[in-house]
Amino acid sequence: MSIGNKVIDEGMQGEATILASDNSAANGKKLYLESYGCQMNFSDSEVVASIMSGEGYQTTRNIEEADVILINTCSIRENAETRVRNRLTDFKKKKEDNPDLVVGILGCMAERLKKSLLEEEKLVDLVAGPDAYRDLPNLVEEVGTGQKAVNVLLSRDETYADISPVRLDQGGISAFVTIMRGCDNMCSFCVVPFTRGRERSRDPQTIVQECRDLFEKGYREVTLLGQNVDSYRWNISSKGEIRDENLPTTNFAQLMEMVALVSPDLRVRFSTSHPKDMTDDVLEIMAKYENICPYIHLPVQSGHSDVLYRMNRGYSREWYLERIDAIKRIIPDCAISTDIITGFCGETEEEHQDTLSLMDIVQYDFAYMFKYSERPKTLAERKFEDDVPEEVKGRRLNEIIEKQLSHALLSNQRQIRTVQKVLIEGLSKRSEEHLCGRTGRNSMVVFPKSEYQKGQYVMVRIDDCTSATLLGEVVSKC
Ligand code: SAH
Ligand code: SF4
Ligand code: F3S
Asked: How far is the CA of 312 from the centre of ligand 2 (A)?
């Protein structure tokens, strides 16, 4: 098996990943798959690789030998789309040298722009939205017969539950497991409900089975993925009614417990929680199981209730801070991270100052921070003016980043002289003599290699830090 080559790693959005795997029943054709966007896109690419390998396609990391190029795309901000367009222009040049090459666009940008990419812009041969991946083999065949290959139908029930994703980082330690798709929230700035369709949850038995298989293959960490994991529900309607009295119901807290019970040596993480839906029962399950990592990504977006109202987030500053208090009360050492948008429509200086003051109260361990980027068709685009000047958005973003870096450094300094349980992920990027791994709180730790190996748990004494990394030494094996 070849190893998946993560070109740029660990990001939530807008980053590229080139994937490769091997397969036995090859048809001699090679698929090159490149992914941008969030973890859900990364996870979807593994589903795509599985569907295409069922047709005999072997995945390659070498674009020059590809018969089919698929690019899995993101629409969350304008610059995410610009990056993909540049890539598509590169691919178009390749087609001039090799007219048989099939170039297809998948994911959120495919769903948003639909056949215009094929007809008006003539950038690709094939367009498949996030719920149309089972159709990919047919679509590729249609291209071969000179037809327009487009499937952007969104589904109310597709979860790809029965498809066993091809893990593209063979020998990996940490895997993403999608537990739900779509989003029903309609935050006013967000394109996701338009590109991913209605929210639906995946059968819990298939989730637990996938986690069990991963553990047996040597994985030691799973991240349960959804746009709003707190609204995961199985056999429960959106009104809270039981759908089938003869079947058990499952909510997110129960699902997490089922996954935690796969093995005490399997770490469980999840993303993303939504402040309006995160309930104490989830926090209590986290506190109960040592292998559910004490780390919550709880996007706030803004620290001012009026902005949150315009964003249609469904909570106020006070509600959010109460949820933070609940986390600190129930899981005292829990790490907390967030997403923040600066310069949303009508954001005043005072409202921006309130985001900074909220950051001072919460003291996030980590944050993803963005300038507001207006997206077509969203509620904000229709209702509000994108009226904060670019330089003001930029200045506010810098203030937020600066504050965050100081909080991250403080958070890391507080870890010095503590002993942390670390799951070893592999060699440190900077030195072959060092290993790296994460604490339960999701901090990256670097320490001398000695006799230890990836996939092991070790206790590490933290001696020093930067704002991004902890440095330490192993004191014992677990
Ligand atoms: N489902 C998650 C977020 C998914 S998108 C949640 O509800 O929190 C990831 C992040 O991208 C968002 O949290 C938001 O901070 C950012 N984002 C989304 N739309 C954006 C836009 N139009 N401009 C700038 N940032 C945006
Ligand atoms: Fe977008 Fe809001 Fe849904 Fe998150 S919860 S994906 S921000 S609409
Ligand atoms: Fe981007 Fe779609 Fe994810 S818009 S952030 S790839 S859900």
From this structure: 10
Question: Ligand 1 test: best mutation among 370, 379, 382, 388, most atoms within 8 Å of CB?
Answer: 370
CA of 40, nearest ligand number? 3
Rg of the chain on CA atoms, in Å: 22
The fold for domain 10-151 equals Rossmann fold (3.40.50)
Two structure tokens written together for 302:
């803004």
Which listed ligand is nearest to 342 at the C-alpha? 1
Q: Coil, strand or helix: which one is 71?
A: strand
Predicted confidence pLDDT, tens digits, the chain (478 residues) = 222 322 222 234 434 566 555 544 667 899 999 999 999 999 999 999 999 999 999 999 999 999 999 999 999 999 999 999 999 999 988 888 898 999 999 999 999 999 888 887 788 999 999 999 999 999 999 998 888 899 999 999 999 999 999 987 767 999 999 999 999 999 999 999 999 999 999 999 999 999 999 999 999 999 999 999 999 999 988 888 899 998 899 999 999 999 999 999 999 999 999 999 999 999 999 999 999 999 999 999 999 999 999 999 999 999 999 999 999 999 999 999 999 999 999 999 999 999 999 999 999 999 999 999 999 999 999 999 999 999 999 999 999 999 999 999 999 999 999 999 999 999 999 899 999 999 999 999 999 999 999 999 999 999 999 989 999 999 998 8
Contacts 24+ apart (CB under 8 A), 81-85: 81/109, 83/14, 83/16, 83/36, 84/36, 84/109, 85/123
Instruction: Quote the pTM value.
Output: 0.93
- Nearest ligand 3 atom to the CA of 12 is 5
Residues with Cβ within 6 A of ligand 3?
Answer: 13, 37-38, 40-41, 74-76, 107-108, 191-192, 195-196
Span 419-477 CATH architecture: Beta Barrel (2.40)
- What is the dotted CATH code of the domain comprising 174-413? 3.80.30.20
CA–centroid distance, 272 to ligand 2, in Å, is 9
Which ligand has an atom closest to residue 299 CA?
1
* Per-domain residue ranges of the chain: 10-151, 174-413, 419-477
Q: How many helices (H) and strands (E) does the chain have?
A: 14, 22
Give Cβ neighbours of residue 84 (< 8 Å, ≥ 6 apart): 36, 71, 73, 74, 105, 109
Q: How far apart are CA 465 and CA 277, in angstroms?
A: 34
